[in-house]
Sequence to fold (310 residues):
Amino acid sequence: MDCFVTGGAGFIGSHLVDALVARGDQVTVVDDLSTGRLVNLDSALAAGAKLVELDIRDAAALAALTLERKPETIFHLAAQIDVRKSLEDPAFDAAVNVGGTANVLEAARGAGSGRIVFVSTGGAIYGEGEGQQLPLDEATAIAPLSAYGQSKYAAEGYLALYERLYGLSTIALRLGNVYGPRQDPLGEAGVIAIFCGLLRSGGRPTIFGDGTQTRDYLYVGDVVAAALAAAGSETTGAVNLGTGREASVLELAETLGRLGSADGFEPEFAPPRAGEVQRISLDAGRAEAELGWRPTTSLEDGLRLTLDAI
Ligand SMILES: NC(=O)c1ccc[n+]([C@@H]2O[C@H](COP(=O)([O-])OP(=O)(O)OC[C@H]3O[C@@H](n4cnc5c(N)ncnc54)[C@H](O)[C@@H]3O)[C@@H](O)[C@H]2O)c1
Fold:
């Protein structure tokens, strides 16, 4: 299959590219390398994947490339992912996440692409989970607490629009907090990347607040499996991807300290950070029923794989 992976030089995208290349797909990575790294693509490029350095805000260049290569499937992961930056510069965040997505959809329409798999967020779109019935399913009211969450939700709206107007087949995967090898500390589950780095360098983890705040941590390999299943399905609309299990920051620090056999990996505590939710987890029942997907990597196994890769 011919496919595009926007954001394919990034953390999640590069793992997806590796899996696509491994199954024999012709892969074009579309990435401006703003946060993505060439080194993430070393083996994929050696195995025949192509990289086109392009900013998805450049509608004309993206449309021309898409028309030339006519990918059957577009995995759209390129995004401004920094939650704090999204609040400092919401217009830039929207330009990449909303405008860029509109450009991807318009290019797909022009080239007759069959399927768009958009990587959205479940961690930043529903707002505060405390006080709600956890885990949250897709019917939960949308209440983002950042411009990033809002721009991802707006982009989902454009997917639905292109389905209605032009019959494009699209799916939006609402991910929990993804972690694993190659992760940059800036992203939604950056805490794991930071803690792993500190563990290796002999530092101590800083916990903002009391550490009881929870997230639904999802191993990157499980996300890749879901993206492949989504591309091969006809399911449309929003689909949560998560474990349904809440893990606290205290649990992360404790588990990593144990796995790394680190004496003194005792957390230091700092004041809580504004705008962070206290609790969240995602119900992935729809993904299981319609994509035949469920996560297979336990938090402990995933943390071990992440540590081993550093
Ligand atoms: N990491 C998580 O926990 C998480 C959770 C939910 C959703 N997501 C989504 O998954 C996707 C991938 O995130 P990631 O964690 O791998 O982050 P990442 O920063 O590693 O990947 C994003 C990629 O997009 C590229 N990019 C950014 N702006 C671009 C532009 N204007 N034009 C072309 N390329 C551009 C970057 O260079 C990078 O390679 C994003 O859409 C993000 O919103 C991530």
Remarks:
- Residues 7, 9-13, 31-36, 55-57, 77-81, 96, 100, 119, 121, 123, 175, 177-178, 184, 187-189 surround nicotinamide-adenine-dinucleotide (CB under 6 Å).
